[in-house]
Amino acid sequence: MKSPMTRRDFIRGTSFAVLGTAVGFPRNTQLEAPKSRVILIRHAEALDENSEFNGPVIQQMLDEAVMKLLDQSDPTAAFRLLVKPEDIVGIKSNVWSYLPTPPEVEKAIKRRLLDAGVKEENIGIDDHNVRENPIFVKSTALINTRPLRTHYLAGVSGCIKNYIMFGESQDAYHPDSCAALGSLFDLPQVKGKTRLNILCALTPQFHGRGPHHFSRRYVWNYKGLIVGQDPVAVDTIGLRLIMAKRRQELGPGEELPPVPKHIQIADTKYGLGTSDLNRIELIKLGWTEGVMI
Amino acid sequence: MKDLAPSIPKKILDWESVDQDVVYDRKTIYDYMDGGAEVYLGFDFRNVFVRKYQNPSGEEIALDICDMGSPGEAFGIFSCDREDPEAGIGQESEYGYGLLRFRQGRFFVSITAAGDEQRAEKAILELGKAVAPLLGPAGPVPDLLTCLPESGLKENRTSYFHAALNLNNRFFVASENILGLGKDTDCVFAEYAVSPAETEDLLIVRYQDEDRARAACESFLKAYLPEAGPAAAALTENRKWTMARIHRNYLAVVFEAPSKEYAETLCSAIRFPPK
Hints:
The structure holds two protein chains of two kinds.
Chain A: H1 7-12, H2 15-22, E1 36-42, H3 55-69, H4 75-82, E2 89-92, H5 103-115, E3 123-126, H6 134-138, E4 141-151, E5 155-157, H7 175-178, E6 194-205, E7 224-228, H8 231-250, H9 262-268, E8 280-286
Parallel strand pairs in A: 1-8, 2-3, 2-4, 4-6
Antiparallel strand pairs in A: 1-7, 4-5, 6-7
Chain B: E1 11-12, E2 15-25, H1 37-41, E3 47-54, E4 60-67, H2 71-79, E5 92-96, E6 99-104, E7 107-113, H3 117-131, E8 159-161, H4 164-170, E9 186-193, E10 199-206, H5 210-224, E11 233-235, E12 241-247, E13 250-257, H6 260-268
Antiparallel strand pairs in B: 1-2, 2-3, 3-4, 4-7, 5-6, 6-7, 8-9, 9-10, 10-13, 11-12, 12-13
């Protein structure tokens, strides 16, 4: 048996190092690598008083995040660093009925892809049909976006898990707490194409119950987006946010969602990005009240 | 399960059945539950009958009736996820924020609101009351629960299950299955009040034989309490005690005890059945 990550490791705060050792990839191989930049941007008016998404504010948040991510002063210029006009771009969204990717986020991404010169007919938005959707089949670039939430099996559903629909069989990725999700990024339809990951923390879900792991009582208006080019780093920050919220609402004993191991394994086994907080440059922008991380 | 369908109301208040009823079995349940299927498959789940209702505003509630194979298994899936007040429906139930859960005999039922839970509440409770009598006689809880010491046992915080996934959803222990749990192990996890502010937790696992219990204990100590020594107990980083005890084919583990004495007292009070 591999050396497991235990409850005690989380109490000690050493889970990341433990898991890295467990799968046999020494952490010091990445010491010379640059840090992964992750932008956490929040805006008090991202949702209105009726908890409806505010499209113009979300567009502004996305713009500011991507500009900061790529050190640009103009959102179109920033997106031009991500895509070329001749690219065929699939926006991998998420349609889970209880907590889908907000259409306002999809619209904001598409707006900037168009501004960057990508033809409208070369932009697709899809979730369940990405394996058949002609845009995704022919895609030369992918934008990955979905809401942040907990998950019975994977612990956390984030940008890594969002690609499960590219797999031939989703069930095949379920064993061992979805440990192999990172391998999805090596599939031919996906490999090397992901230009941007946008983890929607506008209304994240920190706990789940019932057959569908959903109850609105566990969703809160955090009003944030977590944005980066490294999906592992983005999900690592998302996990930290979920853990902070769980600690606050459920108590220290409930800090952990079930087994959030696939994020670290995406780093240490599949080399998809970094789950080491010391290797992540987290830049926080905007509204700070209740930021928690 | 389809035999039940004609008896279940098609309309509750102003909520009407929409779409076709669907029954999912152990193979097709993945089509219905995103990520939740394994939680059910960790029990002797047979199938689930699903009917959806909509109100004039288009909001939806979902009725799920799971045949869990036996009353003990129905208790198990019900017990792993309890947080809300009793609703007085079926053998045991709870309701909160648009989610009604109850068990009756070998059936476990959940009724879930997808939209505004306040608008759905009355219909959910009425539907539950209409369905419960259709599900046959009551059934007993698993016999393993009789092992639990009574003193300090917190009401409605006892869970019964078999698999590591269910344990980790209830109380995360480890990323690997260090206790050797599976379909052929029976587990009970219970919370005990030590003081108004403090609790400790007790896990009892019943294995098929003594060898497996002993191997599981060794595996647990090696992975979780390597410093434990012969006493099989150690103070962990949060200043709480963890202790493991073997009794024939049973393994008991106390987590989060405020002192070694509390852990020992709880272990000693376990009522293992006579050989």
